[in-house]
Design goal:
By secondary structure, this protein is of the alpha/beta class. The protein has a single domain, classed as Rossmann fold, CATH 3.40.50.1240. Helices cover 37% and strands 14% of the residues. It has a 6-stranded mixed β-sheet with strand order 3-2-4-1-5-6, with helices on both faces. The chain is globular, with a radius of gyration of 16 Å. It starts with 6 loop residues before the first strand and ends in a 6-residue tail after the last strand.
Length: 195
Amino acid sequence: MTDHPTIWFLRHGETEWNATRRIQGQMESQLSARGREHAAEQALIMPPILATGPRVMVSSLGRAQQTARIALGDTEFETDPRLMEIHAGDWQGMLYAEVMEQFPDKVTPGMRALDIFTDAPGGEGLAAFTDRVRGVIDTLDGPTVIVAHGLWGQVMRGLLRGLNHEETAMLDNLQGVVYHLENGQETILRPPSVV
């Protein structure tokens, strides 16, 4: 898809719950020490991007705002609840291992995170989540930095690249990098190597 402005996407850094494989969804968990390092790595990438004066949007969840304050320095940003991670229903707060043990009919080993979250009982579901993501990107009118969440970014990147669901579900969800999306193409920007 080529009818969207340039987007730089930052996934929040690792959280305490990420580190223990606990499902967050729209629940809160603070960045871990490694997560703060991820945001600091993004901070090495962002200055020339921010110097161009893009719009900056950040999820209203704390882990994304914590990442933004580190990665973007003093840059002002707007928060938007539409950038929150998918709501994972009854599985929010549970360990992945608990979900696999208690719901073997719904979750199988090797299942992609996007499918686990979108199949959660009582959750937001794929269609509503995709509509929410599309509702953000379809209203962007200029170059934009977005700081949000892994699955939110995965769905956005799939939409911008014209991928089907299976291809979208297989996309990576890296932390400590910046995804640059322009004209239906994606480039992963990494911090300069420390020698």
